[in-house]
Amino acid sequence: MRAPRLVLPRGNFSAIRAAAPLSAIPVPAAADPQARWRDLIDRRLPEAARARPDWPVHRDHGFARILLDNACGGPWRESVGVPAWANLPPERLALAIELGEAVLAGHAELDLLNRRSLLWRGRGRAAPAPDELVVPGGLLLRRWRRGDDAPFAALNADPAVMAHFPSVRGRAESLNEARAFDRRFAADGFGPWAVEEAGRFVGFVGALRMMRPMPFPGGERPGEGVEIGWRLARGAWGRGIATRAARAALADLFGRCGVAAVVAYTAEGNVPSRRVMERLGMRPDGSFAHPAIAANHPLSRHILYRLGARDLPKQDLPKQDLPEQDLPERDLPGESA
Question: Which residues cross the membrane (predicted)?
């Protein structure tokens, strides 16, 4: 049975122990990533599991499943050939290694990562998300469809849309991203919504759990922090769509999902996205170098914003919060990118 449609009113939107020290010496961080992965899965995690009877898995294949699924945003075999360590895209392999290191350091909950993996594989049930959120002003936030593939790929290939990303994206990468976004709803109960205006896909707006360790307070533990972001086609810029859709997504996130706080971040020079964050009531909280972008890259420096559930107005939106902007509203290149 499909989840019920949710219509929004006109308005706003355990700490774990560190793994015991091991006598074996880890492979150096500078080593070949494939060698690091094999050592992590074949030796270091199984050895650490001997001192962790509370862990849900204790063998190499169990750790590989959990880390690879979370790095790929779904069952890894659906997008990667065997063996994964040889066929995984470098950035995904790097993320899987980061997650494994975070588990060993006590900075990531293996139970949470395992639960998400099992839900993606149909083993267990999460609270269903609504199929769609109706936003006043002619917008619809809904789950992803195959018909979104072509316009989403075109959006990701547009240099203007991707100006604050290191590069544009190919069709295959876009399709993998769309599938991973929609799987977030199955694993977490929320995710990036496809945005529809007048029956036409125009981009996405929504939240996701940050699975990459991030260098700011609240971002160190993969899977615990929640980030909100957006990416809209050029034809949807300048009409307040990102702001209105994000308010709706935040209302659902803070209400139905019970999330207490979110962050958003974007490249320092991405003024349009920063203005959207500020219109949402988010407050700047310093800057950081994005770990997925080279330190000498002009997009490395990111500005962090925060918003708590108590800070989001519960009353209807005042008229001045409706579309009024002429500036393009672009995406933030966060972990979701």
Answer: none
- Report d(CA 189, CA 209) in Å as an integer: 11
Q: What tokens appear for 201 in the block?
A: 């896909």
Q: What is the pTM of this model?
A: 0.78
3-state helix, strand, coil in the chain (%, to 5): 35, 15, 45
Give the Cα separation of 209 and 232 in Å (integer): 20
Could you tell me if 165 and 155 are in contact, meaning their C-beta atoms sit under 8 angstroms apart?
no
**Of residues 175, 325, 139, the one with CA closest to residue 247:** 139
Question: Which of residues 105, 140, 163 is at a domain's end?
Answer: 105
* 174 and 56 co-located in one domain: no
Residue carrying the six token digits 């803070």: 254
Q: Do 70 and 335 contact (CB within 8 A), yes or no?
A: no
* Nearest-angstrom CA–CA distance, 103 and 97: 10
Q: Are 214 and 291 in contact (CB under 8 A)?
A: yes
| Structural domain ending residue among the three candidates 66, 90, 105 | 105
Question: What pLDDT was estimated at residue 335?
Answer: 34
Hey, what amino acid is at 262? Answer: V
